[in-house]
Amino acid sequence: MDMGTVDSQWKMQAAETGGAAPPAPAPGSKPGRGGRGGRKHLSSIANHVLHQCSQTLDRSVNDLIADFELGLKTAAVDSYSRRLVEFCSLQALQIITSHDLGDKINEGSLSRFTFDMMLAWETPTPSDQQITMESIAKEREDRKEPLGANEAVMGDETSLFYSDIMPLLVNEEPTIGEDAYVWFGSVFPLACDVVNARFTFEALTATTAKRLHYPAYDRFLKEMDKSFKFLQKLPTPTGIEFAEDEFILHMEGTAGTQRVVRHIGTTSWPGRLTLTNKALYFEASGNISYESAFKVDLSDAEVEHQINTVSTGPFGVPLFDKGIVFESLPESLVLEFPEMTSSTRHDMWLTLIREVLFIHRFISMYNIESPIHKWEVHSRIILGVIRLHAAREMLRMSPPLPSSFLIFSLYDDLPKGDFVLEQLASNLKETSTITRLSASYVFKGLNKSYLTPLSAEIAKDHEPDSSSHKQPLASLENRIDQVKDEAREVTAANVAVDGMKEEGITDSILVLVGLVSPISKLRPVVQQITSWERPLVTGGVLAVILLIIYNEWIGYMLATSLMLAVGVMVWARQRKIGKICSEVTIDTSSDKTTMESIVEAQQSLKKVHEYIKTANVVILRLWSIALAKSPKHTETMIWMLTGIAVALAAIPFKYVLIGLTVGGFVANTRIMKAVSNPQGGRRWREWWESIPAVPVRIMKSEL
Length: 703
Prior knowledge:
It is built from 31 helices and 8 strands. By secondary structure, it is an alpha+beta fold. Helix 2 crosses helix 6 (109-122) and helix 4 (80-96) runs antiparallel to helix 6.
């Protein structure tokens, strides 16, 4: 694709949005007017964005460039064009986002303009644009190759939107990459939040080769506006008066949504469930209307809420794994989200509830006391939930994971995610004013009727100043990149583990036996040493052990063992043993027939049952001795333990170890076996069997 074709595309896009790219103004002309022209160091889309910005600001392009160069402290040639695009875009955004944000989203003008900003940021110069076009062309050539097995399966799961509409729109449409999307989220947190922008981008572009197309971006913003307006119109729970800064995040159980059931013992109560950024409300369905709401306060960080999954079903029978339970409440709250196949609703509600808990824990942990900063954090979580609703509506056939859009749930699971949250709190405290491009003002721009005193206070006391718009994001982005890299490593490391979790109990046992089989090969060696079959070897091992114990060299022995382990690992790394032996092979083949295998499995199960019963008997007899249920045996045990305690107190412990070691080796000699009295073991067994076990009574609950 040549550059002339690219220029024609931008002209077509400008015509679609209702205005062609304005010409570059001549010196001395009126703002926003002038003859046709462009700057050679800028790409066609960058020139287009600059002209659009000049129209929005009612200023000439030359004036914008002059203001930019006036504040440019160092002449950075490599980033001059990109920083110019950033400056002009930031100036224009403060104007176009000041009011009627929802109307501009529905018209499509905001999505087209902001998408062009991201394109211009990604390709600010002609060389950048050429490189991008070549890379996209190469990707298209690569996609012509036959699909593999996994790719074919992935194609079957592509969402309805992408599979039906996108092929008609994306063949000639320029696309944006991850970095441009993250940059735009850092200056205008509508489509994403800079903290989790990379994860949001991955979720939105999972089926489009990690490139975001304009139709998808436009629909995503429109779905966000629809979700916001829908949440605004939801009714307040019965008998509840919301706080000034309380906003509904999710509601189900109404006539137009799926059922929610609360279980109390053996009874079930369908009703309406509402989640806000402060609390969770459940209203049982009555004959005509809903009963008074049962409230679970989630804003008190001092209360440790324990929320877990639970199996539920009719009459209290745990049949379906579709419920959640609050275990820390005085009154039990068990909620079920009925579904035929998957657990999507259950996972959605569980993640959203935990997100609300995390946000209040975050505010409490990092001592965020300013009402303005608190509302900024709440605005971020509200916008994140709105993005989640929009994405799930847009990607119905393959809904994304909720954590990709929720900041605190995401970084609570990721390795070292607490470092990102700590840096986020630090950046939030360093910001003394809230600008028009913060989450609070994006929330206010979407909201026409839902006005709170807090948002009015922000608008009144902290008027935005574009000159003071500085974002301490460098350290935050570094932390995010580190966390994402470690998350990739953890994901790659857990691929084999996730595969094992899906195996049945038989395969798991076979894998365990195969993994411990090398250790079992040491057993014959140990038996050969302790049985004195080779007296010189056994005597040498005994002498070394006694020497180590007597001289108290156990620490040195452990250090030597660790250094030997280090040596083995260094040797394996140099020889690249990990690449040569990349997997463990477990042989499950057997020369036995199916019937013989079944009989062997039954016998093994009986042995396991016998081991369990023996363990239970041992524990019950020990309880009998401890509780003096049999005074004779208890008295014998008292004298035995007293004698052992006196011996341990009087004799140095190393001599005790020496005695035990010598006794263990000598016991296997032929002399000791000849002189030993076999009745001694029999007497001990008879004494043990004469101990009465504590009786057990099993209580069975009645339904």
